[in-house]
Every structure is written in C-alpha cells, then in structure tokens.
Amino acid sequence: MLGWGSSYGPIGEACRRARRKGIKVAQAHLRHLNPFPANLGEVLRRYPKVVVPEMNLGQLALLLRGKYLVDVQSVTKVEGMAFLADEVENIIDAALDGTLGEKEADKAKFARLAAATIEEPTESNAVGANA
Which residues contact 122 (CB under 8 A, 6 or more apart)? Predict the structure, then answer.
C-alpha cells in the first residue's frame, strides 16, 4: 500500500488490522511527490502488487506507472471525504483476491451512468427563468 496526503492514517490502521489477521502487507507513505524519493522505484519493484488509494482521479498512480514501469493498482475516491480504515481494509482484501480491478471498473461505470442521468438545465427549468 502506497499513500500520500490524507490517506496516511486510514492506510496505516487498515494495514495493522490486516497484519493482525495474518495478512502480509507493507505500507509506505510519500511526504513529497517532486522529486520522488531516490529509491522509490527499487522499493516498488520488490512487491508483486502495489495499491495506491488516492483522494483524486489517480494522478499519482499514473506518474508511478510512467516513471517506474510498475503495475500500480489505483483506487480513487472523489467524494470530499477521506478514506476510512474499513474502506482500505476492503481494498486490501480485494487486491489479494484479485477483484480490485473489477470493483474499480464497476465504480467507474456507475459514475458514468450517474453523470449521464443528470438533466441538463434548459431555459424552461433554469432557476429564475420565469422570475
């Protein structure tokens, strides 16, 4: 698990919970993104799975894939609320059982569907159109 910013606490707690259950999981947290730590690529390559929970649309995972050519699994959240430890625990479980990519794809499909169903304002239903 690799985090940065506000994900520090929830990732740490989820990793501790996973370790108490006997799951082998490592955690790293970036303090700065530019420049990346000198040994980051070497560290990432040591692990078969690298998961990055992000409070955005996956920009850090994109940078890591491009710079280090490591298959980073991105988990995004753009809801204005930080990740909870329970959410990160579920992310760890999904990464281990191989369903993480599927869950993220389903989340993206749902977001696109929700966006498509939002009605565009027209002159007749615009706020204050007849006022």
Answer: none
Q: Is the peptide bond before 53 cis (omega within 30 degrees of 0)?
A: no
For the entire predicted model, the pTM comes to: 0.77
**Phi, psi at 51, each rounded to 5°:** -115, 135
3-state DSSP assignment of residue 95: helix
Write out pLDDT tens, residues 40-62: 999 999 999 999 999 988 899 99
> Which residues contact residue 87 at a Cβ distance below 8 angstroms, ignoring those fewer than 6 apart?
10, 14, 53, 77
Q: No. of H helices and E strands in the chain?
A: 5, 4
Q: Which two tokens stand for residue 120?
A: 């565009």
